[in-house]
Write a structure and sequence with these properties.
- It is a multi-pass membrane protein.
- The structure is a single chain.
- About 40% of the residues lie in helices and about 15% in strands.
- By secondary structure, it is an alpha/beta fold.
- It folds into two domains: about 220 residues, Rossmann fold, CATH 3.40.50; about 250 residues, no CATH class.
- The strands form four sheets. Strands 9, 10, 11, 12, 13, 15, 16 and 17 form an eight-stranded mixed beta sheet that branches.
């Protein structure tokens, strides 16, 4: 049977509140038809760098099979190499914490906003990728009702890397699976495909539409149109690991390790006065600006000290701040690994999470030194600020808000599920890591020599959060460190004293 398809531009969006829709994921909802990057992310995040290297080595075979039209065979190979032997929990964690960001960055604005989101009935998504990789994203972010995907065999909580019956979900198998979901009766109102081949599942659709533009012409879904805000995510890679990008990463890795070690050693060995020049010579970029009252506060000596309250991008935030100010600031933190403490060129003080004791500790430190704190308590990669703890505002007489941006082109300098003591290494492994610091106008704290009264600390903390968000163009939230770790890792994110 020859099916007639309409271009997606012909879709009429009004009055679709009860219409059901079935859409292909690759090439329709997603701009790219290649699934290689998502298998690579699973191989790296759930399996480690050696498995990712092995996956990259078999990519020529995968490309050959796809060129010959053997998509099912290519998917068998990618599934086996990326998941065989891995704990099912690790694959699910990568699918929940890492893959959604890359899926969203590749989501087609025309397909999602133009068709899929307009249909208010049941939403079916069909894909050849394994269910454990795609279902968290599709249900949580695209509000999919049913997912037709490839099943993977497991035993004893581990993936075997083998596809379970009925096999890779392509062609006629999609039609059969969709018929089973419909119970053999009724049809789907709208069908959406990639436009390159016929899709048997569209025989069950009343209206059929195709996405035809090339990847170069397609527009990704804007952040403000995300069906759910992407605030937290994990994983080390900044860019989508296509075969070419993965190869570049592999070739850069030896030099990046040497460069990161050199940057750390220079930071430990050189005095503050020489560190900016040494960092610039090794590709580190730091851009700084001061508001008038911030410059005055940092330049004068005053009894009681100053707290620099910054948004948290990486573990290097306090170190870069101290280097810029040419002061040996004290970094106050709740949770820091032993290795990070040893390698820190500035003093660090770990708080106890006992509010009264921590307040006394910070007041004692302020009598001798200026402090730098990250009131969010954890890093956030996206343009959002987490809730600021008010403790810093309750112990300081003067606070300088500090808006920080930290950018790397290859690696993120933060993690939830990985080894936190490697965070600084990964950020410094970027070819040209960049920091931008904006010291804002000083703000009076709520401490006047007696216990702060009422909600003064909360008011000051909220005002500073809003000032930093306004400077960066970020959005304030009430989310906390605990929310982040529970969403991504299922724990509270505490680092034990003995953690290396």
């Amino acid at each position: 049977m020859v099916m007639m398809f309409s271009p997606v531009e012909a879709f009429f969006p009004d009055g679709r509140e009860k219409d059901s829709v079935a859409a292909e994921l690759e090439g329709a909802l997603l701009i790219s038809r290649s699934v290689f990057p998502y298998f690579m992310l699973v191989a790296l995040e759930a399996g480690g760098p050696l498995r990712a290297l092995l996956f990259l080595l078999v990519s020529p075979l995968v490309s050959l099979l796809e060129t010959l039209g053997l998509q099912a065979a290519a998917l068998h190979v990618m599934t086996f190499v990326s998941t065989a032997g891995l704990r099912l929990a690790d694959v699910k964690a990568a699918a929940k914490a890492t893959l959604p960001r890359f899926f969203l960055l590749d989501t087609s604005e025309k397909a999602y906003e133009g068709v899929f989101a307009r249909c208010g009935g049941k939403k079916y998504v069909l894909t050849s990728m394994p269910r454990i990789m795609v279902e968290p994203f599709l249900r949580e972010y695209l509000d999919a009702s049913c997912v037709v995907a490839t099943e993977v065999r497991t035993i004893g909580g581990r993936c075997l890397g083998l596809v379970a019956p009925p096999g890779v979900m392509v062609g006629q198998r999609r039609l059969d699976a969709l018929k089973a979901l419909l119970g053999g009766c009724g049809e789907i109102d709208v069908g959406l495909g990639d436009g390159l081949q016929e899709h048997p599942f569209m025989l069950l659709c009343g209206e059929t539409y195709n996405i035809t533009p090339t990847e170069a012409e397609a527009s990704p879904l804007p952040r403000q149109s995300y069906p759910k805000p992407l605030i937290f995510h994990d994983g080390r890679l900044v860019k989508r690991p296509t075969p070419l990008h993965a190869l570049v990463l592999l070739l850069w890795l030896p030099a990046s390790i040497f460069l990161a070690v050199a940057r750390i050693l220079l930071g430990l060995a050189l005095p503050f006065g020489l560190q900016p020049m040494a960092g610039a010579a090794l590709g580190m970029r730091v851009d700084t600006s001061f508001a008038p009252t911030a410059a005055e506060a940092s330049a004068r000596d005053q009894e009681g000290g100053i707290i620099y309250a910054c948004c948290h991008r990486t573990l290097l935030d306090p170190v870069i701040t101290a280097c810029v100010l040419q002061q040996r600031l004290v970094a106050v933190t709740y949770s820091l690994s032993a290795v990070s403490e040893i390698l820190s060129p500035i003093p660090t003080v770990r708080l106890s999470r006992n509010r009264a004791r921590d307040a006394e500790t910070m007041r004692g430190l302020l009598e001798r030194r200026d402090l730098v704190v990250c009131p969010e308590g954890t890093t956030c990669r996206e343009p959002y600020l987490l809730r600021f703890s008010p403790l810093f505002a309750e112990v300081a007489k003067e606070i300088v808000p500090l808006a920080i941006l930290a950018d790397g082109s290859m690696f993120y300098g933060s993690t939830v599920r990985g080894y936190k003591w490697l965070d600084s290494f990964f950020f410094l492994m970027n070819p040209f890591p960049e920091y931008r610091l904006r010291f804002l106008d000083a703000v009076a704290g709520s401490w006047d020599g007696a216990e702060p009264s009422g909600g003064g600390g909360y008011e000051v903390a909220n005002r500073i959060q809003q000032a930093i968000a306004g400077e960066l163009g970020y959005e304030c939230t009430n989310l906390t460190r605990r929310d982040k770790y529970r969403m991504i890792a299922g724990n509270d994110g505490l680092v034990a004293e003995s953690t290396p």
